[in-house]
């Protein structure tokens, strides 16, 4: 088995390799003067089971192209099996046609990965589970929930918890976390979004008064959804609001929005490499999912069960 990395999140790739007690495959992913991407693998991969770690986060298109070119290089170097390890799958939110004459870009990205030569995909908390069905190759979707639940039990386990979904679409994810927290009660923020990039909290379904609320979502992008939800929960009498979000996209002014929000803390994972701003914020904490991904890789390589990781 070999672990290779693009430039998107080297610290995560190194941590995964360390978990597996393997060196990272010696390869260079470079840019020509005009920004074309060039990949050169400096060791033999013929007949190898290769895992390429590359979240397709900002800059999304560059990172995606790097991943496609890495896969092409591996295929032409006769790797036996290539698994695209995409901890954060960019374009996942474009998983349906929101209107006439619009694309389904998540499906296009799935096609590109398959066409480049990926034999399998491994991702974490896909925005919508059905994106697995966009691939005709095996696709494993891991959940960060066990890592989050352990952290919540350790930090907030002594409080009267309420798990909160920031929108109706996130209820299944929130319910699954609540189950892991000794069946904590569930509330839902009924959010209406008028325009893309703007969010508005309408009302809270459930009684959050006197509760330490745990907001759970897959993505924090502009931070609007979460910060508005946190304020609405505090207005309804929550004692504190902490957010656990798998993918810290954190674009634009998101970090300062979070820092100045009613949130007690934002906990994200390292599926996306955090910016210096995010690392410097005393409201943002990062949990690693390297052991989770490393263990899934080990099981894929050994052909043992991945789903039992979540029992
Ligand atoms: C949407 O369905 C996602 O689950 C997130 O709630 C959304 O992407 C967060 O975006 P923002 O942080 O920009 O409000």
What does this entry look like structurally?
There is one protein chain. The chain is of the alpha/beta class and 311 residues long. The protein folds into two domains: 2-143 and 291-310, Rossmann fold (3-Layer(aba) Sandwich), CATH 3.40.50; 145-288, Rossmann fold, CATH 3.40.50.2020. The chain is built from nine helices and 14 strands. The protein has helices at residues 10-19, 60-76, 105-116, 145-156, 171-180, 224-235, 254-259, 276-280, 290-302; strands at residues 2-5, 27-31, 37-41, 49-53, 81-86, 120-124, 139-142, 161-165, 186-192, 200-205, 212-220, 240-248, 265-269, 284-287. The strands form three sheets. It has a seven-stranded mixed beta sheet, with helices on both faces. A five-stranded parallel beta sheet has the order 1-4-5-6-7, sandwiched between helices. Strands 2-3 form a two-stranded antiparallel ribbon. Helix 1 crosses helix 9 and helix 2 (60-76) packs parallel to helix 3 (105-116). The mean pLDDT is 96. The chain binds ribose-5-phosphate.
């Amino acid at each position: 088995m070999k672990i290779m990395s693009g430039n998107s999140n080297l610290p995560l790739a190194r941590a995964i390799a360390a978990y597996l007690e393997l060196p990272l495959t010696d390869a260079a992913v470079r840019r020509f003067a005009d920004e074309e991407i060039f990949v050169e693998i400096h060791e033999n991969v013929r007949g190898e089971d290769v895992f390429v770690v590359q979240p397709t986060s900002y800059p999304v298109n560059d990172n995606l192209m790097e991943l496609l070119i890495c896969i092409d290089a591996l295929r032409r170097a006769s790797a036996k099996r290539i698994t695209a390890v995409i901890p954060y799958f960019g374009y996942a939110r474009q998983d349906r046609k929101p209107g006439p004459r619009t694309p389904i870009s998540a499906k296009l990205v799935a096609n590109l990965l398959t066409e480049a030569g990926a034999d399998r995909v491994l991702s974490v908390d896909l925005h919508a589970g059905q994106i697995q069905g966009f691939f005709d190759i095996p696709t494993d979707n891991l959940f960060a929930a066990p890592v989050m639940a352990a952290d919540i039990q350790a930090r907030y386990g002594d409080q009267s918890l309420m798990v909160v979904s920031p929108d109706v679409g996130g209820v299944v994810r929130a319910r699954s976390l609540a189950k892991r927290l000794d069946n904590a009660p569930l509330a839902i923020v009924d959010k209406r979004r008028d325009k893309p990039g703007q969010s508005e909290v309408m009302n809270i379904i459930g009684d959050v008064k006197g509760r330490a609320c745990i907001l759970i979502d897959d993505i924090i992008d502009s931070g609007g959804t979460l910060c508005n939800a946190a304020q609405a929960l505090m207005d309804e009498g929550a004692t504190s609001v902490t957010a656990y979000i798998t993918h810290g996209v954190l674009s634009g002014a998101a970090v300062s929005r979070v820092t100045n929000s009613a949130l007690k803390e934002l906990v994200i994972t390292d599926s996306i490499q955090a910016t210096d701003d995010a690392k410097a914020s005393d409201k943002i904490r990062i949990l690693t999912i390297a052991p989770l991904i490393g263990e899934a890789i080990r099981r894929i390589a050994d052909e043992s069960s991945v789903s039992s990781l979540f029992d």
